[in-house]
Amino acid sequence: MSMKKLAAVVLAMSVSCAAPAFAVAKGGIDVISREEGSGTRGAFIELFGVEQKDTDGKKVDMTTDNADITNSTSVMMTMVAGNPNAIGYASMGSLKKADVKALAISGAAATAENIRKGDYKIARPFNVAAKGQLRPAAQAFLNFVMSAQGQKVIVDNGYVAVNEKAAPFAAKRVAGKVVAAGSSSIAPIMEKLKEAYLLVNPAAEIEVQTSDSTTGMTSAISGICDLGMASRGLKESELKAGLTPVAIAMDGIAVIVNKGNELKGLTVEQVRDIYTGKIENWETLK
């Protein structure tokens, strides 16, 4: 880790999550991004055009080399909350208790309702994936997630249901351990789904392991987990390896800044230019 990145992490961990009211962004923009392998980063660079084709037609992540890198949603929130000049991005559903501000994008606020209406277009699926036939315990849990009760948990926690007309869950006491592993963006809602499921099936044991989307897919391919979690679409290589994805929810990606930042919104093009290093100062955006 470079001295700049280390300093950014130390600063974020040492300050209060509540930014002072007078902390107005000025000067250089401190760009914060997720690590390679993160589904949120993969979806972000695709949706904002940060991923671009080179002369050979190959897709290349053009995120500026000056970006500070964090490997989890929670650290991203802490770094942005503690730095008046920071900009980052995170799962919209994870913002409920975060002390950061989500910017409107191209005039649309980052809300679940705007995703449902199609006004906020920076959205991606939350997928779980498995290789081959699920064991009975894992299939029962997935059935709950896709049921009316499971989809209600998703909506109640700020995400968008994929099936608003889902049938009620037919409660069955299916015993056995189920392991879901992967995306740190999906992990919080998976924990909520776990809590709700255990109320109707206390015979089950659900373990949620948090890492990133790529690790989740690798774990599902190798059989380390029952359900891999990916906050992006599956790659062709993952599908060829035998994974079958199921979208359990839709989630927006929010562009976040410190609460003291006076900026209210950006265009897709402005976000792209910030993350590719073309825009480096806050004054450029005012």
Layout of secondary structure:
Blueprint: H1 3-14, E1 30-34, H2 39-47, E2 51-53, E3 59-61, E4 68-70, H3 73-81, E5 86-91, E6 100-102, E7 104-105, H4 112-117, E8 123-131, H5 136-145, H6 148-156, E9 160-161, E10 176-183, H7 187-200, E11 204-211, H8 213-222, E12 227-230, H9 236-240, E13 243-258, E14 265-266, H10 268-275
Parallel strand pairs: 1-4, 1-5, 7-14, 10-11, 10-12
Antiparallel strand pairs: 2-3, 5-13, 6-13, 8-12, 8-13, 9-13
Report on this model:
Residues 25-148, 172-283 form the PBP domain. Pfam families: PBP_like_2. Keywords: Signal. Residues 1-23 form the signal peptide. InterPro entries: PBP_domain (IPR024370), Phosphate_ABC_transporter (IPR050811). Mean pLDDT is 90; it is low at 1-22. The protein is globular and about 60 Å long. With 286 residues, it is α/β, with parallel strands linked by helices. It folds into two domains: 3-123 and 253-285, 3-Layer(aba) Sandwich (D-Maltodextrin-Binding Protein, domain 2); 124-251, 3-Layer(aba) Sandwich (D-Maltodextrin-Binding Protein, domain 2). It has ten helices and 14 strands. Strands 1, 4, 5, 6, 8, 9, 10, 11, 12 and 13 form a ten-stranded mixed β-sheet that branches. A two-stranded antiparallel sheet has the order 2-3. It has helices spanning 3-14, 39-47, 73-81, 112-117, 136-145, 148-156, 187-200, 213-222, 236-240, 268-275; strands at residues 30-34, 51-53, 59-61, 68-70, 86-91, 100-102, 104-105, 123-131, 160-161, 176-183, 204-211, 227-230, 243-258, 265-266. Helix 1 crosses helix 3 (73-81).
